[in-house]
Amino acid sequence: MRLHSADLKNISIRDGFWSKHVDLVRSAIIPYQWEAMNDRIPDAESSHCLENFRIAAGRTKGEFYGAVFQDTDVAKWLEAVGFSLACYPDAELEKTADEVIDLIAEAQCDDGYINTYFTIKEPKKRWTDLCEGHELYTAGHLMEAAVAYYQGTGKRKFLDCMCRFADLICDTFGTEEGKIHGYPGHEEVEIGLIKLADATGNRKYLEQAKYFVDARGVGENYFMKEMSRPDYKMIFPEFADYTPAYSQSHLPVREQTTAEGHAVRAVYLYCAMADIAGAYQDEALLRACETLWNNIVEKRMYLTGGIGSSGILERFTVDYDLPNEYNYSESCASIGLALFGLRMNQIMRDGKYMDVVERALYNTVLAGIALDGKSFFYVNPLEVWPPACMEGTSKRHVKPVRQKWFGVACCPPNIARTLASLGQYIYGVDEENRALYVNLFISNESTIELGEAQAAVRLTTTYPEEASFTLEIKSLPEEGMDVFLRVPDFAENYSVTVAGTEQPAQPENGYVRVHADAPCTILVSFAMPAKFVYANPQVRADSGKVAIVRGPLVYCLEEADNGENLPAVYVDTAAGLEEKKSPLFGGIVTVTARGKRIAPQSWKGGLYGTEKPELTDCTLTAIPYPYWSNRGQGEMLVWIKELNH
């Protein structure tokens, strides 16, 4: 039986590290993004997404503006609102969301279809460009939003709208004669359909998702056939060199062994594959998920949990190609990786998946948003020299400071919905066997449904400042319950004490099992000292370099602490590392190291010379990667040259 997440309504997060981010969702992020979607942020790129719905609904006149998937900004914002309302009821916010839902319902066509681009701009071209048109991708995000809003408020209007749309999709796509035998160019509707099936109990939505997964890459490539039509009109110029691997349609999904193509598309597909594998007990599909997961995390993932190294087409390239200063690592891709890892953990009950989920959430996902919740990174590099981030160059996609908004604004609302639903990652629940899996160490108070019984738990921690947490089981089923405590891959000297008595800590599949027959307090402690980390020698970009990691956090050097020209610095790994508490960013642990710096005044040549430059002693200060670029523009570096003795 698959684990599931605890109900967000029953989780209250009060955490020293995460609350400063999660609380921003309702106080700053949702309001700010509402203003952005209404084009009321000065000097920010236009959104127009709500205006597109007003035009499609007939409330106003005008032309469609934006990308073909512009509707998804509204969808992800509504999903974040749904998650937020589940935890924090807010009558005014709910009223605003209801008005947006009314607008979407007005824009819905008589047959259930919703898509402002095709309704306004290309009404006769529905379903004729699955490769580029993003109709099914947009539908999927709307479905996810409708389910989240229904679960958060109990209101069905949005859900019913999306059921009508899903019914249309089921009637339109499939193997039967007269139906379109295609599948999404950008995967996402599979996830939406599966969530819709879970929320409504209508299995045909699950079967439709399975069709989209099973049909992908089978026989003649559907997208190449689309593009061969004489009347085919290309939406994205970069698709002129399109190959099926870009959309993971080069092979049937069960035969794919490497993560290929557009990174967000890929991990959304893998999420659906995992869901379908679990729902249908499909061992071949599950093995494919494991193979693809291993390829990503062992050969194609950054230390920060970033994926998709190429700035061209936002894609995977080849094993070990992980450049630092012009990589892409889209925020959405790491969110998708976390969602994939969550599903694999729930199916396999192995803590190794949550190790990666934690790394992605604490680093790339958090780096994507400023500490005030009002600016964002789309791209997450591991090395930045601001003057070189120029238009018309290979680094044009790299921004040295977070942006107020984007013309393609998929990342900001995606981060919003992720922070709003953070509770889904904390626990895994096995109702049938009355078991609770503790996955993330975030202070919270929760009620856990265990079949017909409940457990009340409180987790208290200062993690990741300190490596310990207390789990108080305040009430539990009469028959008792099992608690599985995750042992992170970086943990040393892991110990478990129950009611004052130390227990054997023998991990199995990344967890230590404790059985509780009565209310009790479980204390977990371990060591996670700051360490130097080396990359596989096949990662050419990191040869001769080291990074600093402490627990789940990757650290970086910033110009604000270490001066300019960070690549001219060498770190002395023999001298060790020192951890210090700092008031920066509301309280963090900084890490200092000893090293050498090339003395610029020692350089006697011109552009090149034969005289070896002199090195001077220096002390290096590293901060957690998610907080970089919160003190103004400056250089940043994760991988540091190692000093040779």
Automatic annotation (TrEMBL):
A Pfam family the protein falls into: Beta-AFase-like_GH127_cat
The residues forming a coiled coil are: none
Q: Where are the transmembrane segments?
A: none
Could you mention a single GO BP entry for this protein?
A: carbohydrate metabolic process
Domain Non-reducing end beta-L-arabinofuranosidase-like GH127 C-terminal positions = 531-641
Q: Which residues form the Non-reducing end beta-L-arabinofuranosidase-like GH127 middle domain?
A: 436-519
* Span of domain Non-reducing end beta-L-arabinofuranosidase-like GH127 catalytic: 11-423
- What is the name listed in the Swiss-Prot or TrEMBL entry for this protein? Glycoside hydrolase family 127 protein
Q: Which organism is it from?
A: Marvinbryantia formatexigens DSM 14469
